[in-house]
Each structure stands twice: as structure tokens, then as C-alpha cells.
């Protein structure tokens, strides 16, 4: 649609207009240019799914066009972006027309915007006070669902708002969307529902880790992952991504005149959808009278957004009464009865200043981008992992590039893309090293992987990283022995390897700057205490490739003594739960290496136990072998890892999610979506911390 020259020109115009709009210096003479730029970015976002600018920057330009047109209504044109929904469709799926257009929402960024919205609504309705329903603005891929005679008939993407892509086969892979729902008991024959498809943060992190383990480039963020997955042509691949969906609006229905509909407010419609088996924001929504409570709730929700299991980019404020919604009506762009309160931006543009190459504990070489420091979502970002050489090539990155950076919740920052159209010719190619940047050994890349590795296990960088991992909280948990101290001791020659932790010269350490008697005694106590850690922590601390905490526990339960693994073949390892070919090969390789065996023998000599100390069963209901447990929310007295350890001591297994295989869900304060999901599965026993302690005989 856009030639390379036109694209470059529009990119340059975007940069200039962003600077001008920040101070309201866009002149009416530039309005045509502004409209062209907005249409260009609509195309990039809705058609190519490849945005050039951050959402907040697009909103900034859109607001500026609205301001100019409001100041002079005579300049408004029928094709202005303010007068229509963004156009453009992909051609990969059949087109599907929505029964009611999916309009955009007007955006607000502060309390003044919400107050202005409330004032206009009261003026149009003649009311002194309006009741609002407030709910999270989920950040995923928008969908429209049609049910006919209680069966799911069609699923579609938002598309251009009038029609989208028909993706019913993919929608059917999302388990939180019921294939049938009893609308007919309310006299509803055909209904159209709006919603958002998401990937929760945990599933996103796990899927990305699988990609990294396979040597593939990770996905940029949960939003793009969800939106992109909807357009995958293979439904089986869609099913693997763990998509979830929230539905939040009934946009159209036909009903029997003999039955009265059970809802007259938006909040009641969300309750109805929940009761019919949909995941609606029933638990998250709040209803308030007056705008000040709405403002307070929006600000409160923004403070806790990082603790949520999903990405949200704001709150949606809706007039609750459906008759009032009809009275307020809509513009060609957005409904007058709803507004989005947008949170602070988590995207920004910056400049790529250089790339450093770091060596991990398994020898992997990770390129790290150094960018011009930029604030994103309350954090100043200056370093970003690029994962591997293929990512650099796929994103077409060059030193000196202007880049779009995103930080989504607790997920590490990503470079979404380079803005190649802004290059001046002074940019430089990124040269990936052929030798280890630390020990200068030749780098090696296994067939089928994207990661280059230093295979010299004596490489100082790897040794340091292995020691840091061994000391970490989830491994041997040696308090006060973090990255800085490990690097300091290693550089001074006080510490050379993992066994050296238990041979430290504490008298010499006591003479170092910053190490008084108290800190030295604390470190010595922590080192000694770590000798009593259970076997699974030691296994995890060894840093065997592909062996995480769960696999470490599986391995610990499989032997009487850690050295027993010397006798295990790859086939023996494959018979263990959740151990696949890659993991089995890595474990077998570790215990076939004489240097590793010598290290384990040293550790045992220094006082660490390599035995699987089976603990006796405490008083109570007996052994929980084969029973699964999941802990959610904040427990009153126990830390999560303490509670999990108690269950595991009795043979229980800790799982990560709610499913029909879960036996016990132990809930604390702010249990969230896991509790609601568990309530729908009759076989799960939902208990409190006190009931859990009573169950295991420690009440």
C-alpha cells in the first residue's frame, strides 16, 4: 500500500508532528499531513500488526487532530480518522461483518479528562449524578463472538470495526470460551458479544522460555503474542499457546417478546455472562455513583497493575444504565457513554548506542543492547537483552538505530523493532563475535539452535555465573552472598569454584572494606546453614542445563544418593516424570563428566549431604503421595515456599495451574482468578491455610 519512499517520508513527518503536538504547535496548514500520518499508522497497526510508534504517541497525534477540528469544524472531512474507525483487513481469513460496528473508545489520561467526560454525560442526560461501571482495559486481541440458538456460530477479529477476519476454528481452541451457552432460557436467540483474547504472564513466560530453549527468538509481549496467535492458520498451534478470553459487552441480541431480559445495566450483563460460563470481569468490575470514586479506583488499580496475571493498559469507564447509554448514543468514532482511562505508557522510542556480549553459566553468548536511557512505565531502561544473533538479524538492528522499546509488566524490556526508515547512513552493523569475549575460546553453535556457546567450562565468566546461581534463593539460599560479593571474591582470588564456597578464608574476608565482624559472621553462618539444604535444592543449584526447580525435585525423589545417577542411562532418565529427550541428554552428560563427579565428591567431603533424606510422616491424615496442591493469594502466616515444602514432605505434588487434575487449592487473601476457576470444577477441594495445616497434622 505504501512505497518505501512514502513510508520513509511518513516516518519523518511522524517525528516532526510528535514534537509539534507536544506543545500544540501543529498548524491548521498541516492538518492534511496529520491525517495522512494517522492513516498510515492505522494501517501499520491494524493491517500489518507492525506498529511504528507507541500507542501513547498515536493517541497524542489523534488528540491533536481532534483539537484542531474542534477549533474549526469547517475543516472536518468525511474521511478524517476522527470520523471513522481505522480501515484495512488482512486477506488470510474470510471477511466477517459485525452485527454492530466495533467502535474505538475515547481516551483519557488524567482526572480532568474523566471529570470532563462526566460533565458532558450529565449535561446530555439532565442528571445530577450518574452511576458508572468500571472494569480493566485488557491488553490483547479484540474479538467478536456470535451465538445462535445457544451454540457458538462465529468468531471474528475486530478488523476495521465494521468487518473483521473470521477465525472460528481458532476461537474454538480457547477453553475459556464455551462452545454453547444457555441464552435461550432468557429468550435470547442470536447474540453478539465483544471480548479480548489474552495470554497470561506466566504462560507467556513459559512459552517464551520454550522458544529460547529451542534456539528460537522469543515473542515481544503478551499483547502481540495473543493478537498474532489469532491469525495463525493451524488451530493445533493456536491450542499450544494457552490463550484465554475475557468477554465484556453484549452488543446485539434478538429476544422473544414473552420473556423479560434479566439485565438493565452493564454490570448486570457482565454477571449474566459469568453465570452462562464466560469469563467476564465480574470480579474486577466496580459500580460507583459519581466520578470521584471512579477516579480513585482507576488510580488504585494502576498502582497494582504489575501484580495482575494479565496485561492491562488502563480502565474502561461506562455509564451503567443501558437506557442512558442509548440516550447518550455515539459518534462515528466512539460511544459517548464510555471512555478509556489509559495508564502511563510502557512504550517509548530510544537510540541503540551499542551492544555488549555476555557469557552465561551454560556458556551461552547473549547480546545486550545499550540504549539511550528512557523512562517506561516508571522504570528507566538502558539495557535490553537481544537473546541471540538471529534476533539481531530478524529485527534488522544496527548501532545508531532509532528503536521502539516496550516494557510489559514484570516482563523484561524488549526492542520491538528498529525504525530503519530513519537511518542516515551513519549506522553500523552489529558484529557478532566468533570467539568468547572473556576467555577467547572459539564459539560453537549446536545444530538446530540459535545460540552460540563458549564450551570451555573453565571460562571465568561461566564459573562466576555458576557460583551466583548456586548461591541463589531458590538453590542453596546463601544469604548475603549475591552477585557483587561473588564477583569481588573471584577477582581477588578468594573464590575460584563452587566447592571453594565452603573453604572461604573468613579471616581474610574480615579485612576487606565493607566487611565488618557482623557481616563476616552472618556470611559464615549462611554458608554453614546451606549444608543442610535438601537434595533438590543442591541439584537445582548445580545449574544442569534444562533442569529447573520442578525437575530437580523429580530427580531428588528418584535416587537414594545423588551419585546413583552415574548408573542411569538416557532411557532410565526418560522414564522419570516430565523428563524429555533434551533434559535426559543434559543430565546424562553432566553425570558422565569426571570434573563434575570430582566436584560432587568435594562437596560431600566438605559436609554437604548428597543423600535423599526421606522424612518420617508426621501425625495427621497420612501420606499425600499422588495428591496435587496449589497455593494462591497471600497466606496469613506461611510463606508460599514454606507451605509448598510442607505438602511435598508428605508426598504431595505442587502444580502451577488450576485444572481437573488439581486436588487441593489453598487460598489466602486476594486469591484472584485461580479461585474463581477452581469453583467451577467440583472435584477441587478449596481450603484455607488453617484447614491445610489441620489436614497435614500441624493445625
Automatic annotation (TrEMBL):
Q: Which UniProt keywords apply?
A: DNA damage, DNA repair, DNA replication, Ligase, Magnesium, Manganese, Metal-binding, NAD, Zinc
Catalytic function, reaction form: NAD(+) + (deoxyribonucleotide)n-3'-hydroxyl + 5'-phospho-(deoxyribonucleotide)m = (deoxyribonucleotide)n+m + AMP + beta-nicotinamide D-nucleotide
Q: Which Pfam families match?
A: BRCT (PF00533), DNA_ligase_aden (PF01653), DNA_ligase_ZBD (PF03119), HHH_2 (PF12826), OB_DNA_ligase (PF03120)
Q: What class of enzyme is it?
A: ligase
* Annotated active site: 137
**One Gene Ontology molecular-function label:** DNA ligase (NAD+) activity
Please list the cofactors this protein needs.
Mg(2+); Mn(2+)
Q: For the BRCT domain, which residue ranges apply?
A: 619-699
Binding-site positions, NAD(+): 55-59, 104-105, 135, 158, 196, 318, 342
Annotated binding of Zn(2+), by residue: 436, 439, 459
- Cited PROSITE patterns: BRCT
Q: Which Enzyme Commission numbers does its entry carry? A: 6.5.1.2
Q: What does this protein do?
A: DNA ligase that catalyzes the formation of phosphodiester linkages between 5'-phosphoryl and 3'-hydroxyl groups in double-stranded DNA using NAD as a coenzyme and as the energy source for the reaction. It is essential for DNA replication and repair of damaged DNA.
Family statement drawn from the similarity comment of this UniProt entry: Belongs to the NAD-dependent DNA ligase family. LigA subfamily.
Q: What is this protein called?
A: DNA ligase
Q: What is the originating organism of this protein? A: Terrimonas ginsenosidimutans
